[in-house]
Amino acid sequence: MGRPQTVKVRDVAREAGVAVGTVSRVLNDHPRVTPELRERVEKAMAHLGYEVDVTAQSMRAGRSRLVACAIRDFDIPRFALFIKEAEAVLREAGYTLLLASTTNRADIEIGLLSAFRRRRVDGVMMTLSDEQHRDVREALSAASMPVLLIDRDGITTLDRVTADHREGARLATTHLLGLGHRRIAMLVGDLKAFPSRSRLEGFREACSAAGMVPHPRLLRDNVLSGEDAYRATVSLMALAEPPTALFVAAMDTLGGCLRALRTMGIAAGDGISVVAGSDSDLAELHAPPITAITWDLAAMGRHAATMLLERMRGDEIEGGRGLAVPTQLIIRGSTRPLPS
Amino acid sequence: MGRPQTVKVRDVAREAGVAVGTVSRVLNDHPRVTPELRERVEKAMAHLGYEVDVTAQSMRAGRSRLVACAIRDFDIPRFALFIKEAEAVLREAGYTLLLASTTNRADIEIGLLSAFRRRRVDGVMMTLSDEQHRDVREALSAASMPVLLIDRDGITTLDRVTADHREGARLATTHLLGLGHRRIAMLVGDLKAFPSRSRLEGFREACSAAGMVPHPRLLRDNVLSGEDAYRATVSLMALAEPPTALFVAAMDTLGGCLRALRTMGIAAGDGISVVAGSDSDLAELHAPPITAITWDLAAMGRHAATMLLERMRGDEIEGGRGLAVPTQLIIRGSTRPLPS
Fold first, then answer.
1. Percentage helix, strand, coil, to 5, in chain B?
2. Which of A150, A225, B89, B91 is 20 to 30 A from B289 via CA?
């Protein structure tokens, strides 16, 4: 598994100029170690980068094993479906799932990977802020445990579980074009990440199939929160030629967009057509209900856990595997024909 | 800190009848240990319950420290505000926050506490399925790290951060009574847990202040999901004397209740008054908007992290501390006077 060469207790003993038994007494907080001796041994450990192999020990003692899941953020309600299902599959197999948030920062992703390695976490599933980031890629290569990517598709040496966001965006855009809309605004997240990039691709694909060139002023990227969506919606509707349809493709930002429309006295459906990039209670129970893209997050969680379990068992699998769950469009009252 | 007496390497050596150096070679996966010797040492370790002190080592080497947060479930959207804020405070202090879900089961809570102890997690914040559960209480006493309770108030030897759910429920019920409602149905979660218990108390308090005895058939407890709320609402509205107001006090179950009303062709606000036990995008953007109880989850997260940091630093604090953030009622269009 390409684990880096480990420093042994006897290396520490040699470096510190003490007996092996002394090192192990320091390691075990033995009360009879003098502070001087302790300091000498600790310096040697720090210098050599000594690490105790916790997993080997915990496995032998039949202790529960760990899988870590590191995601951008915890405030995407539907993502709980992924976690819940992955957790159930892993628990069944004797693993505890721990979550950590990366807040979408590469340095935290790298720090977590290293912390997981040091604590001998058995497997990791995670999102990445930027799959092209050189240091992140290096940290992934240095990981001694299997890593599976969640909704990222750029590193083909790793297992990946994604949703077919491109197809979802293509369906949504084709639907709006079919209703006669041409000034379609798109709110999308971080284009460095796979989901937003694929959504934009699907949007462009549908436009070009209809012989239409999307207006660059109607595209807003880096919409990452409800507040971002609020601001983007206000500024779009203030244009001299405002959009007639809003494709709110960024995850979990529909609330911000609807709040902005309400503030401006514009009715979703009547005044402007609205499509949500992901379904929610809000989309379903809004008046009118909001047309939305949906996919099976529980299935994604199940696939991710199952694929990671296969890797942790050491099954012989050649290369990284990519699995994409399909997306569907649920057409509701918020998308209407453009009045002619 | 009451850490249980730890087994030392020399105890293992004695039990296995080998030298201390041999134990440390086994611990460090030394290649020159024979399988027989390894087995003998491992048996001795298992027999004595030997545990390596990882924290002491990781702290010496200046490695990042861990706080674990174990909660019932990840699908409560507003709870992300708690996590986000707690995480920011902890990260600032050099800690990584890991999350685990208990799925509200005592055996999993106990297993996690033991896993956290073994992995030398520095501090824990958690919910509990049942504060009176004897084995859970035992596991809490055996924990060698500080544990803070999230929205639980029954174990006063521990630090607790709660919301004043009783006051929120009292305000909501008083508001409905003031509008003339008498047949008020209440949907509430697990009464073994502090939040649901306090909400019921607040409800009863308001009723008795108005000289009213709540009708037992209109109380539904153990409402834990949107599906539960859907079923409870359908069965309540099918009663010979259906309620004129619904107090959906269970966390994040408003969607299920509104879905049931829509299916039955009953309009929230017009046909029946509705109060949500916790605010959400759905409550705010629904037509009509739903009257809701709210409290500052970010403040709860900040307090929890700060109090836990004080404990982890070993500050001298006598006894467990309890901190309750206040609750407010946001009155919106879904609560209207009872037609006379």
1. 45, 15, 40
2. A225
3-state helix, strand, coil in chain A (%, to 5): 45, 15, 40
Counting DSSP H helices and E strands in chain B, the numbers are 13, 12
Q: pLDDT in tens for each of the 340 residues of chain A?
A: 333 456 777 888 888 888 877 877 666 545 566 767 877 887 887 778 776 544 444 443 344 589 999 998 876 667 888 999 999 999 999 999 999 999 889 999 999 998 888 788 999 999 999 999 999 999 999 888 999 999 999 999 999 999 999 999 999 999 999 999 999 999 999 999 999 999 999 999 999 999 999 999 999 999 999 999 999 999 999 999 999 999 999 888 999 999 999 999 999 998 899 999 999 999 999 999 999 999 999 999 999 999 999 999 988 888 899 999 999 999 999 999 998 7
How far apart CA A46 and CA A290 sit, in angstroms, is 57
Is the model's pLDDT at B56 over the cut of 70? no
Over residues B171-221, the pLDDT tens digits come to 999 999 999 999 999 999 999 999 999 999 999 999 999 999 999 999 999
How many residues in total does chain A contain? 340
Q: What is the CA radius of gyration of chain A?
A: 25
The residue assigned the tokens 């004695």 is B14
Long-range residue pairs from B319-324, CB within 8 A, at least 24 positions apart, any chain: B319/B156, B319/B157, B320/B155, B320/B156, B320/B157, B320/B158, B320/B159, B320/B160, B321/B159, B321/B160, B322/B153, B322/B156, B322/B159, B322/B160, B322/B162, B323/B159, B323/B160, B323/B161, B323/B162, B324/B161, B324/B162, B324/B163, B324/B164
Domains and CATH numbers, chain B: 9-52 (1.10.260.40), 61-163+298-325 (3.40.50.2300), 165-295 (3.40.50.2300)
Q: Which residue of A has its CA nearest to B253?
A: A281
> With a cut of 0.90, is the ipTM above it?
no
Put simply, whether B87 touches A (Cβ < 8 Å) is yes
Would you call B99 and A258 a contact, using CB atoms and an 8 Å cutoff? no
Q: How far apart are CA B182 and CA B173, in angstroms?
A: 10
- Residues from chain A that touch B96, judged by Cβ atoms under 8 A, are 100, 111-112, 115
Are A196 and A190 spatial neighbours (Cβ–Cβ below 8 Å)?
A: yes
CA proximity to A100, closest of B121, B55, B119, B100: B100
Nearest partner of A96 among B112, B267, B294, judged by Cα: B112
Give the integer Cα–Cα distance in Å for B312 and A99.
21
Q: Which two tokens stand for residue A205?
A: 């694909």
User: Residue A67 burial by CB count (10 A; 0-12/13-18/19+): exposed, middle or buried?
Assistant: buried
Question: How many Cβ atoms from other residues are within 10 Å of residue B36's Cβ?
Answer: 8
Per the CB < 8 A criterion, the answer to whether B329 and B113 are in contact is no
Rounded Cα gap, residues A96 and A112, in angstroms: 17
Q: B10 contacts in A (CB within 8 Å)?
A: 25, 30
CA gyration radius for chain B? 25
- d(CA B146, CA B125) in angstroms, rounded, equals 8
B75 touches chain A (CB under 8 A): yes
Of B244, B238, B268, B271, which Cα lies nearest the Cα of B256? B268
Span B155-168, pLDDT tens digits: 999 999 999 999 99
Residues 246-265 of B with CB under 8 A from A: 254-255, 258-259, 262
For residue B166, count other CB atoms closer than 10 A to its CB.
Answer: 23
Token pair 């909660």 is found at B71
Q: Which of A45, A98, A226 sits opposite B99 (nearest CB)?
A: A98
Of B149, B104, B50, B176, residue with least CA distance to A28: B50
